[in-house]
Amino acid sequence: MPPDALCDLCGATSLAQVYRPERSTRGLKIYLCRHCGLVQSLPRIDRTAARHQAAVSQGADWGNVRYGKGFRTQIALDALARHADLEAPLRLLDVGSNRGSFTKAFLELAPDAAVTAIEPDERFAQSSAGLPRTELIQARIENVKLPDAGFDIVHSCHTIEHLAHPFAALKDHARVLKNRGLLVLDAPNLALLGSDDILEEWFIDKHLYHFSDATLAYMIEAAGFEIVQYPDPADAINLLFVARKNGAPKSAITPDPDEVANSEALIAGYVAMRAVNRAALSAAAREIESLKPAKVALWGAGRLFDALVSTGGFDPAMLSLLIDAHLAQHMSQRHGMVLSTPQALAKTPVDVIVVMSRGFAAEIAGQIRDIAPGAKIILYSELLARARLAQAA
Ligand SMILES: [Zn+2]
Fold this sequence. Notes:
Layout: E1 15-19, E2 29-33, E3 39-42, H1 73-83, E4 91-95, H2 101-109, E5 114-118, H3 122-125, E6 134-137, E7 151-157, H4 166-176, E8 177-188, E9 209-210, H5 213-222, E10 225-229, E11 238-245, H6 257-289, E12 296-299, H7 303-310, E13 321-323, E14 333-334, E15 337-340, H8 344-347, E16 352-355, H9 361-371, E17 376-379, H10 380-392
Parallel strand pairs: 4-5, 4-7, 5-6, 7-8, 12-13, 12-16, 13-15, 16-17
Antiparallel strand pairs: 1-2, 2-3, 3-9, 8-11, 10-11, 14-15
This protein binds zinc ion.
Zinc ion (ZN) is lined by residues 7, 9-10, 12, 33, 35-36, 38.
């Protein structure tokens, strides 16, 4: 462990290495704080590394093609509508505004509101340039000094886990909020490690913190907030909190041996389940290949597809179409197959569509029923479950 590494939340010197991610370009290791239970990656800061080419692998180097954030806009707006008067002249700080999807949707809903949008990445920041009632600051949030008590709302979606010091950032969010101001905070959920269809490396290089509902709740409360809306316990992918500024930050965090034990068990289960699922991938690949002579499309060319090819030995040349609505905008091919948008299904009809997605499986299946109502759908989770049984037999 680097000598200066203290737990970012409780400040204890009790970080213990619990895992080493596969294919980390930064040599990151995963540590568990044996005092408060917060899971964190070390070393924390690497601002000098050149930006890598867009990588879509199953390993820790994934993450330069950002997606998913836009899908969280509606749920954040619904939460805000419950806790704030959107007709009021609100001042909102959007931390990590990305392509501006939240800022734009919020301004439409709140006619007298104004937004300060912060986004360090110039490729995305420019999407918010020139928006009405919007001030764009192209910088990292840690380097921006905003006045005290200037905002009614701070919105931060899938940003906190990227920061070197999230606790300091949350305390600063409290500082820039007016008294009783609202924080809407969304982050990836450590609970996903417990999924029985986990396959890809979850501990990616871009994420330095790995929050559970408990550790993120501690951090929010200790930063000077009162939580008014907790995450949906049925959502293993995201943690959405709404909290109100409520007094001064606390420093002492009580030990939580249960949380420490939970995190440890979750990571051990993840390692074991991933090994089982990776071993089953060749059976999954053979099932898809056995569908011939039916015409087969595969929808979802991201990390699960990468694992199917790289680990399962799947030959994508047997596919009639490889579809990915998002990745098709960023790259032309994956593993030698041309990437298509869903619209290609109109020109190239298929008999079967394999959906290689976990988080968006239901949404993609819904789109398939609209675009290609005759096609049989095979979901990744079902394919993998059958492959595990075949492997065990
Ligand atoms: Zn700690």
